[in-house]
Amino acid sequence: MFCEKYKRVCYADTDLNFLVNVSNVISHSQNIYKDLEVVLGELCEFLNARYSIITIVDRNYDRIMISSAYGLSEEEKQKGIYKIGEGVIGEVVSTEQPVVIPDIAKSDKFLNRTGIAFQPNHPVAFLCVPIIIKNEITGTLSIHKLHPGIKDFSAEIKFLNIVGMLIGRNISIRRKQIEEIDELRKENLRLKGVKSVKPENIVGNSALMHDLYNLIERVSSTTTTVMIRGESGVGKELIAEAIHNASPRAAKPFVRVNCSALPETLIESELFGHEKGAFTGANAMHAGRFEMANGGTVFLDEIGDVPLSMQVKLLRVIQQRQIERVGGGKTIDIDVRIITATNRNLENMIKEGAFRDDFYYRINVFPIYVPALRERRADIPILIDHFIEKLNKRNGTKIKRITGGALDMLMVYSWPGNIRELENVIERAMILTTDDVIHSYNLPPTLQTGFSSDTIDKGTLSNVMDKVEKQMIVDTLILTRGNMAKAAIQLGITERMMGLRIGKYNLNPQNYKQLSNEKS
């Protein structure tokens, strides 16, 4: 029957029969997941839709994922993961209200996370309704509807709401099963003493890295302030990001601040914002990084470079969770988690009066040490494979592998620049190779051994030992920023012996202090 009001087929004659059939299928189902896909297929045929999807809200991770679908492959279903508030489905879960997108080709809200294809020049509407059980949203029901230019989808929305109510109880049961299985998995890991699950953004399977993953897992679910320690280039920002992504704040902003890159005159404005006219050039109100991160996480990198005057103000923020914009008198409440990172010795800085001890104790609640690459050499091969795959995609190259000789050279190198240096070395070698294989001669001269470069030293044992000793002293002076006392301790000799060797090899420790500062 044709409906004059909506200028299309009227569903009134067939709605009841369809809903009765759906109810019978669900109530007598022996395999609800398989039968729900049958229901979704019939729903698509009934409403002239191309695809239909049921999602479930997973409260454990603040995410939404596809539970059942019609017309999607298994791979496409797995891609359908959304954060609450993200895209159309995320908006429906967040607001608990239906959303209609008349033409997905003209909408920025429609993310098409699953990657399904649509025919051009054929309008496709996306209709999504919440599935609510006992005043709690448990998921969504949506369809992709082909249409010749329909403007009013109220009839379809009402129908989807009814179908959602019919399948809602089963969705609620399925959601609880998912959450219970996840809790059992965590408990099983704990009881068996299995190491924590590796964060997706970090590469490494060594024992030290598994210890690190365990710390990340333990602290992520809390609001505790974290300080990440480690040398430059070890990936401290990735650790901070992993903590945020595994936390209840994952759907909120993760705001990075490189404190060493901000001039002292601008750091307060950047962190706390400023009012219009607060200073010359402040032509408009500017929200600071803490306001931008409200509800989420602020990552303060290179915290050791923050001036003393700014440490006092940051201390107040940590204690009171309030900020004031520069040039303003209004106190603004904020809800942020603070993660800091540094490669500097803050304890020595406190002794020298360059860092406040009260600020230090506020940010050092849960310290995490990230091991240097030379401390976890077992991870070098998988890091190399990771960088080759990553750089192949970025640069359009087809590098296949690295030779055993080249790998041996990378394994014995000390890696003062850590993972960042390793990635740069691999990228350089991938550019230089001519046969899609990384050879030892493609590596930088600093990594070349006497054998690989055919430059084995043929001097006397005494001469060779002197060269090795001099190089060790130079490396240690660089590491200790030219501090002779620290270098002597590092090398296991007295300061007097260190002084004699400095004179013997005509070295100037001040030069290495300057070199270290330039590198950092």
CATH architecture classification name of the largest domain: 2-Layer Sandwich
Would you identify the regions where 5 or more consecutive residues have pLDDT less than 50?
450-457, 514-520
- First-last Cα distance: 76 Å
Q: Widest sheet: strand order?
A: 5-4-3-8-7-6
Tell me the structural class. alpha/beta
Q: What's the number of helices?
A: 19
CATH class of the largest domain: Alpha Beta
List the helices and strands and how they pair.
Elements: E1 2-3, E2 8-9, H1 12-27, H2 32-47, E3 49-58, E4 63-70, H3 74-79, E5 81-83, H4 87-95, E6 99-101, E7 124-133, E8 136-146, H5 154-192, H6 207-220, E9 226-229, H7 236-245, E10 254-258, H8 267-272, E11 273-274, E12 286-287, H9 289-292, E13 297-301, H10 308-320, E14 322-323, E15 332-333, E16 337-342, H11 346-351, H12 357-363, E17 366-369, H13 380-395, E18 401-402, H14 404-412, H15 418-432, E19 437-438, H16 461-479, H17 484-491, H18 495-504, H19 509-519
Helix pairs in contact: 1-2, 1-5, 6-7, 10-12, 13-15, 16-17, 16-19, 17-18
Provide a descriptive summary of the structure in words.
The protein is of the alpha/beta class. Helices cover 45% and strands 16% of the residues. It has 19 helices and 19 strands. The strands form six sheets. Strands 5-4-3-8-7-6 form a six-stranded antiparallel beta sheet. A five-stranded parallel beta sheet has the order 10-13-16-9-17. Strand 14 and strand 15 form a beta hairpin. Helix 1 runs parallel beside helix 5 and helix 13 packs across helix 15. The C terminus is likely disordered.
